[in-house]
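task queued by scheduler; priority normal; single chain, no ligands, no partner chains; default sampling; output format set to structure tokens
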Amino acid sequence: MKKIGLAFEGGGLKGGYQVGAYYAFLRCHIPISGIVGTSIGAVNAAAIVCGHHKKLLELWEGVNPGKILGFDDSFTAFFNGKIDKLSALKGFNTTIFNILKEKGINTNKFKDLISIVINEEDLQKSKMDFGLVTVKFRKLQPVYLDKNDILSGKLLDSIIASCSLPIFKLEPIIDNNIYIDGGFYDNCPTVMLAQKNYDLVYEIRINGVGRNRKLKYAKTKVITIHPSRNLCNVLELKRTNITDNILMGYYDTLRVLKNYDGYKYVFRHVSDYFIDLITRGLDEKKINKLMLYFNAKTKKEAIIKAVEYVLEKEKVSYYAIYSFYGKIREIKLLKANRNFIYNYVKELSIV
């Protein structure tokens, strides 16, 4: 049986994307033998290995990032569009004062939060592999921790060590040393699974700030899944953006696992034959213009991106699995539009 693993990149509150991605693996009934991660990726990985993916999803869906980070309520309310900038100013000043007073953002609330979904006993009993990376601050020495390397009673501290950005209050942890975020050395520790001779590793990237190590693995095939659109900020305070990330992770991953088509949307398989069929009424100049506009390498890519362009303009939800043929039919029913891309799509030949 093939050993398949996941490697979760670090990236703060962009991490909800990885939860959505994991649910796509569940939907496709793909067995996962191990998960490794850096920073927020280590949090998500540990919770899933513990068997608490449902609680993890609930946590991400209901998370109040401002409270976790110790931000004033009015400061957070501004980012969620509930109060104006002037009203938030006092909260901003209070937040900055508290951070300076504490010499960084205190991690106690964050530690309490992740303890809801991460339990040392559950992790050690799990048949799945787990690992994380952090960096010992004094010598900037990378430290990879397999679940068997983590000291008893130090699982949460080890995860906090992997998450410790310089904006957090840095205190001695684990073995009385100060640690910083693992992203300073390896923001997506695929190597930990490659060293265990995994056959296939899916890297779930979230465009976090950190060092990405480009390594070649002799026995391990690596497939990388990237966000199809911009994710939220690393320290995002707007909950709707975090929820959007979860859905994006699910559909982006489903597109890869099911070999569906699309770039920002998900379409059931679109054959080259079908593309040739629907473009038979377009002359080569129009097709070349589309390819140039979308910087597309193939006619199929240009046509799909043209359809997606119209869907975005029409504010069609990204979160569904669509029939490409069906969407073209809907676009052809739209009123005339001066936009040349709309018109090209409306000229596609369908019966």
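post-processing summary
- The radius of gyration is 23 Å.
- Residues 50 and 126 are 6 Å apart (CA to CA).
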